[in-house]
Amino acid sequence: MNEGLKTAFSYPLVRAILSRRSRRFGLGMEIDQGPLAYKSEKVPVPLSEEEEAFLVWMGTGIKSKNISDIPPHLGLDLEVQFTSRANPSLGDLHRTEIFYTNDEGTFMVKLHDILPEDFAGLEAREPGECWEAILELFRRARVRLEDGRAQIPDKPPGMASHNLWNVNKPGTTVFFPITDLTAGVLDLLFFYVRPSHRYNFVDEWHNNRPAGTERWIKEGYIREEMRMPLIDSEIRFANGYIGEQAMICQNFFLAAQTMGLGGFLFSGFSGVFLLGGTPFYRGLGFRFVMSEKHIQPLPVGRDGVFEAFCPPYYRSMDEAVDAFVEMKWSRWKDPKYLPYRQPEKIQAAVPPPSEREIQIVKDIANYIYNTYGRFPAVMDPMYARFAFQAHHLDCDFYDRHYPPGAYTDLHARHMELWHAAKEDGS
Fold first, then answer.
1. What CATH number is given to the structural domain containing 96?
2. Which UniProt keywords apply (predicted)?
3. What is the pLDDT of residue 108?
4. Domain total for the chain?
C-alpha cells in the first residue's frame, strides 16, 4: 500500500464529512473570464488505477453478505441478492451500476452478477489484505467498453452550460451510476401482490381502471378496495432506486476527501444525450427503442453487460418476468447464498412466488407495456440522474482566489502520498 492508501484507510469519518466540499478546479483547467479567471500552468494528471479502484469500491463495492435481519413473514421476500455493498439498496436489489470514463477508455464495473460469498469477511481484514482484495475484485468486475474518453454532451441541451468548462476534461475520471428501474418495479410488484398486501393497481390516467387485474379481482385474490395508483406508485418506486445514485456519489465524495482528490457531484445533463439516444453523441453507448407511443427514445441497456427486463432483450414481458424470477430466486435456492445459521428454516418460511402470483405480475406488466408501449409506464427503463467527477486539484487556483482553508493538507500532499513512486521512477 502507498502512503495515500494508508492515510485513506485511517481517515476519520467526522473529519471527512466536515471538510467535504466541491472542489472543481483541476490540473490543466481554465476559467477564461471574470473575477475567478485563471489558467492552470500544470499538466493534467490522470487518476491511477488504484485511485479509481478505491473510489469505486468505497462508492458501491461489495463487502460481504448482507445481514437481512427482517422477519420472514414481514417483508423478507423483498430481498434479492443478500449482498452487502457500500451503498444501501431497496430490497437488496443493487441494480445501480457504475459506468466511468477517463483518458484511456470507457468502462463498466459489473457487480450485479457477482455473488457475495466471494467477499466474505472483507470488512474484517487488515488494511493491506483488504486493499489487495479490493484491487483484485475491481479488476475482475471492470469491463472495458470502448477505447478513449466517452463522447458525452459538451453543450446544451445535453449538458448544462455551468458544467461545460470542466466536465470530462483531460485527466478527469467521470463516474455515472445508472439504475435499472425495470428490475426495481418488478420486485415491488411481486411484493405488493403477496398475501400480506394483494393491492389493486389502478391506472389513474385511464379512469382508475384495473391495471390488468380484472380476473384476479373477480376471483377474490386481489382486494378491490386496496387501491394503489399505478403511475404514482411507479414514480415512488423509481425514486427509491434512483436515490441510490445520490448515495453512491456521496460515498465518492467522502472517499475523495480521504484521498485528497478534487471532485464534485452534478446532475446538469440529459439522460437521453448522455446514454447515447441522439445522433449527436455516442454517449455511453446504450441501446434505445422507439414506438408510436414514445415521445422520445427510451434507454433499455448496454448490450451484453447491463440489460433491462423488458423488450427488446426479451420477446415479451412474460419472458422478462420469468427471467427476473429466475435471477432473484436462484439466489434463494442455494443455502450458501443466505447469511443465516439455519438458512433452510428461512427458505421454508419464505416460499418463492406461486404460479398465480407470477401470472398476476405478468398481467400487470403486460398491461403497462401494451397501454404505454414501454415498461415501466413513465420512467426510463435505464435511468441516469447523478454523476461524480474526480480529478487532481490545482491548489494554486485556490491560493490565488480564496483565503486559507479552501483545501486541506491532504490535497496539498496528494501527489507526494499517491504518486511519489511514479515520480521518482521506483
1. 3.40.109.10
2. Membrane, Transmembrane, Transmembrane helix
3. 98
4. 1
